[in-house]
Give the backbone structure.
Amino acid sequence: MEIKYHPGKANVVADALSRKPRGTLAFLTSIDPYLLKELEKLQIEVVLPGESAGLAALQISSSIIDKIKEGQQKDPELAKLSQKVEEGYTPEFTLKEGVLRFRARLCVPKIDKLREELLKESHKSTLSTHPGSTKMYRNLKSLYWWPGIKKDIAEFVAHCLTCENVKTEHQKPGGLLQPLPIPVWKWGSYYRGFYCGFAWNSKEA
């Protein structure tokens, strides 16, 4: 076998093949029905702007924003904050498209199922790979906010069985057992490398 180096300018055939329209999403979705079914399972809708253009666009819509918006209306504390925002009393909170935000972060209402869904998505999904509490907090705090979010994240990670099973030991291994030497006298023992002997007189006892 002989390995030869081809510079980028000479690699014309590979560049030409990679630029063919057969690799576009519009071409794949128009031929492969299996790919369309898999995209529907992921709730991804493929929109073809036009057959002449030969382009495709992906529109991904998440239902989490709608759930947060509905939950904010049921949460009395967030409802009061929304009224204060409309009156202009809270500059840190804003209303954007009817959703209350704290410093551009979504305010998650006090609904256990909704918060647990967010925690599971950011910790146990295939893209998250079980991050620690610190990394998980950094990922979530850029998008969501609720009182005590850091404490909830730490408790959620502490109760994860997968993280407990794969937790690494940071201590030095103990090694083999080292038996203590045999004492010289009765009632004697070794304590931290020093021999301590106790005399016993049966007559005085």
